[in-house]
Amino acid sequence: MVQKYERNQDASVYVGNLDERVTDELLWELMVQAGPVVSVHLPKDRVTQSTQGFGFCEFQSAEDAQYAAQIMNMVKLFGKPLRVNMAASDRRMQDVGAKLFIGNLDPSIDDKLLYDTFGAFGSLVQAPQIAREAAGQSRGFAFVSYTTFEAADLAIQSMDGQYLANKQINVQYAFKKDSKGERHGSAAERMLAAQARKNDPNFQYTQG
What are phi and psi of 59, to 5 degrees? Predict the structure, then answer.
């Protein structure tokens, strides 16, 4: 059984908008300039094994991570400005409910295309999740989670009814798990998210 490594979220940063040429080693070399690095992780697509445009870097202390988020955000790597946020803040914001359902997807659309398309509207909590059959084929829909409702609202306004790979997609708030037809994006969720933003001193690092 593979033992899952638990990263120290409070001492970690989320790094987004990564070029596909960026490797764990290259990201390590860049981030060590901000402070002592413990680990670097670039999630890979389970089918293609290509990186998904984002990763995480764990530092020895939360102070080092905060410093990295301040000085490394918007630094260009292969011509692309990096998004560097505190991972702990992203994790706390993960359940605010800014989760979208994207339907009628063409089978040719992959995680990277969705990331590049929907990442333009704001910071994503994680890579887009395309629903797949056991053999790996797309089931024609996916989920995208943002760190803020403002980004999710903008994505719906901009992308619902648009064409992606010659198919008209629909974009709306996803249904809540174990709920009777209730969708994310409710007034109650928005109020809780606003309260979390007010109470979380690191929330500023989730913007981008």
Answer: -105, 175
List CB contacts of 170: < 8 A, sequence separation 6 or more. 101, 102, 103, 104, 160, 161
CB contact at 8 A, 205 and 121: no
Distance CA(116)–CA(178), nearest Å, equals: 30
Q: Is the pTM of this model over 0.85?
A: no
Is residue 156 over pLDDT 70? Answer: yes
Pairing of strands 99-103, 138-145: antiparallel
Can you read off the two tokens belonging to residue 176? 């809540």
Query: Are 65 and 10 within 8 A, CB to CB?
Result: yes
Q: Would you give the DSSP letter of residue 3?
A: P
DSSP 18: -
The CA R_g of the chain, rounded to the nearest whole Å, is 17
Name the strands in the sheet holding 99-103, side by side, starting at the edge strand that comes first in the sequence: 129-132, 138-145, 99-103, 170-173
Whole-number Å distance between alpha carbons of 46 and 43 = 9
Q: How far apart are the first and last CA of the chain?
A: 38
